[in-house]
Design goal:
182 residues
């Protein structure tokens, strides 16, 4: 995908406090997103309430704000920084909910601001897949054959694909996976 020349800075909303079994994947994906965005020449801004996340370490973003992940805290950062784009999809449900609130309160009302449709697509798997199909975009379905499944080694984290939250995340061994699938 070509780099968008109309964007200069991108603000990533983090996931806030990490709960055991939840949110660590959002910190990892946020770190990777910040790394790639900086490598592509974008100025990066991260807002997160949790100083214990890796994405808030110096060097991951050009500007880091440790602020409450609420409407007022994030709106204040957006007003100060005036980013070209907002990236809420790396911060899980917390960031997505905040982006919806920001849109509803017209904080994102500027031309080119986040479209509500983009948030809805991020939330609803069937709609996202429909949009990809409509665009004729080749994508993976995430399905794996039984033979491939048996060859996987080591502990694996699995969760229901229809949720961004890891409420059903659990570790399993190769033997558990094979016996569970029959």
């Amino acid at each position: 995908m070509p780099r968008r020349r109309d964007l200069e800075s991108i603000c990533l909303i983090g996931s806030g406090p990490i709960v055991i079994g939840q949110a660590c994947e959002f910190d990892y994906s946020g770190c990777q997103a910040l790394k790639v965005l900086r490598e592509d020449g974008f100025r990066t801004i991260v807002v997160n309430s949790n100083p214990a996340t890796i994405m808030t370490d110096p060097g991951f973003a050009d500007r880091t704000y440790l602020e409450p992940l609420d409407l007022e805290g994030v709106a204040d950062v957006l007003a100060r920084e005036r980013p070209s784009a907002l990236l809420p999809t790396m911060g899980g449900q917390t960031a997505l909910n905040l982006a919806v609130q920001l849109a509803e309160e017209d904080v994102l009302a500027e031309p080119g601001a986040l479209e509500r449709r983009a948030l809805e697509l991020a939330e609803e798997r069937d709609r996202a897949l429909g949009a990809l199909k409509e665009l004729e975009f080749d994508h993976r379905t995430g399905k794996i054959s039984d033979d491939d499944y048996r060859e996987l080694v080591g502990p694996l984290r699995r969760r229901v694909a229809e949720t961004l939250r890891a409420l059903e995340l659990r570790a399993e061994s190769t033997e558990e996976r094979v016996s569970a699938r029959g």
